[in-house]
Amino acid sequence: MNAGHLIDELFADPAYLSMALRLVAALAVGAAIGLERSYHGRPAGFRTHALVCLSTSLLMLVTIYENRWFPGLAQGRIALDPTRMAQGIMTGIGFLGAGTIMKEGPTVRGLTTAASIWITAAIGVLIGIGFYFPAMVATVLTLGTLSVFRWVEARMPAQFYAHFTIRFHRATAMPEGTMRELLSQLGFTVANLNYRLDAAADFFEYRMVIRTSRMDSLRRLPGALAALDSVREFRVAPTGD
User: Fold this and answer.
1) What is the pTM of this model?
2) 163 or 1, which is more confident?
3) For the chain, is the Cβ count within 10 Å smaller at the N or the C terminus?
């Protein structure tokens, strides 16, 4: 079968268009949900949600169109439940994906890598059963998600969140109001403020989540804090994928 004949067959069969539309719709819905999560600085964001939604939709095509990848089922000669094998595969892949997720202090990383492993496994399931068309569409959409969506994600407006810890000498600790005013001047708002006093080590510490919509605020923050003699140390740990 030549390429031209295969393309004609794909366009002539409405089922192939339905498969493609379902996969694109799943990608769009997942991306829309992830967009909201990315805007609010959550670790699982734009690309992660898009890939997870795409992979689950992809696996559902195995059961909906099973007579297409295994014609014997349509004639009633064979009883087959492919979803049992797929469930086992995806459970195992889930453990593999979990190994790529790392927690560095308050920051979580590797979620998109875990999602890409999952969608790759889903594509492998479809290729293994000979369901080539949705596997091909999913491969194109996945590559687009990991490349084009990265470009979109880097340019779309978003709020930047970070876990912020600042430690002072006990005797010269900055009052809370002064600290809030300093962060406000730099373009940050404060949430989840916690306090810590260690008399033995002679320090007073603030821990909080800071938020800004301007990336230049992040670049100015270290310099402003380093200029304060009372600051013993500080740490800014961005949340993110």
Assistant:
1) 0.51
2) 163
3) N
